[in-house]
Amino acid sequence: MHPARLFRVEDRGPLLAFLRAHPFVTLAASVGGRPMIAQAPVVVRQMHDELVIDFHLSRANALAPHLVQGFRAVMLATGEDAYVSPDWYESADQVPTWNYLSVEAEGSVAVLDEAELIAQLDTLSEQEEARLAPKPLWTRHKMAPGKFEAMLRGIIGGRLFVDRLEGTFKLSQNKSEADRLGAARGLGKHPLAKMMRQAGA
């Protein structure tokens, strides 16, 4: 996360909304002294008093064999980003920067059993198919008998038990209002521009 507190978000409401809106994450871990990353689609769940993030990987992924013994990991979800030109500021002698939105979740990872993996896949497809409405929902029951079970053998599921959740919403909050609004004008219709205008409200 960005070290500047001005950009840090710790309120769980916006962070969970962001994760659910950007469910394709980068998973990073160091296992056996080797740094590894994977990209995975996720489902965010509240289980009793715990926040968990369920995912699945191809069994060919470098991290997959380590899921059984577990490891600590960080998940990174990223959203919109934009280059900000110094020409857009009212103030002189500025430098280029980048505005962006991201959320990190850190915790221990454990393997899912088969029933939990199937639940993750069903929930994930339902979650993503809902975004395609009014298209009728696809479900695995549309597959030929035995096909889903055969494909299931090629993946493995994991669950991240979240013990740290924080975000960086860098929207020129460290600039004067004139500079921030100037940068927002420069970005035109970019999705971050509206958020930058609202950052000082």
TrEMBL record:
InterPro entries xref list: Split_barrel_FMN-bd, TR_PAI2-type
One family name in Pfam for this protein: FMN_bind_2
Recorded superkingdom: Bacteria
UniProt protein name: Transcriptional regulator
